[in-house]
Amino acid sequence: MLSLLLAAVLALPASSAVAQVPAAQQAPVAAAPDAAALQKEYDALVAEYSKADEAFWASLPRDASGDISVTEEQMAKRPDNVFGPRFLEFGRRAGKTEAGCKAWVEALRMVHEPPATRDEIIRQLVEGFADSPSLARAVPHFGGLRWTKGSAEAEALLRRVLAETSVDDVKAAATLELAQVLMDSVYEPGGTEPKPREDVAPARALLSELVERWPDTQYAQEAKGSLFEIDHLQVGMVAPDVESTDQDGQGFKLSDYRGKVVLLDFWGFW
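The structure assignment produced for this chain is given below.
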């Protein structure tokens, strides 16, 4: 009799066996993230960071001209070092929400060490948020990987974004950044001396495509500047004529000095 009962139990379908498990012992089904609540929490975190960052810069001494000189010791006290891990933690628990994507982008901007964490942030953004509009803000950081991981890795990552996203703003951003990578010198991992890039035709093709497909975007305006650089500001080309005033307030044209050695000093604040 015992063997017959055992055989009957083994013959039960899997669904019947599951049905015998008490409800209290069954694994709970994870609730979907509350996107609205997460967005509200994200906004509060951004406001807190902005206030701290503003206070940090206001606390720094200025010279007679109003410029700020920041030491490495002072930079180590930036709010980014505190808020970067907080945005990272938020991104890890926010799921595939827009607030989650924004948090990962902020973490990408603020968290630089350790390299494994940096790689995690990039992987989460590319694999989880290809169709998020907020991914466009991460694209310049992807291009910046050429200075640490090499031009080839930055190019491959940007081409993957272009292949997988359906968001025009992300496509435009990635097209511009890829063109910038293909205009720049070729960097190799390990910090070796970069090599000048001989052929910028692929970069020019991308910039022209960007201006044609997304003409009303900020990326198209930047692309026009890069096209001007390719077509008019390469070594060996005649410099475009410019008009300005000298240190004495006298107007002049660059062409007035044609045939002479001229040093142009362009500067600004970033």
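Interim note for the steering committee: The chain has 13 helices and two strands. The beta strands are 243-245, 251-253.
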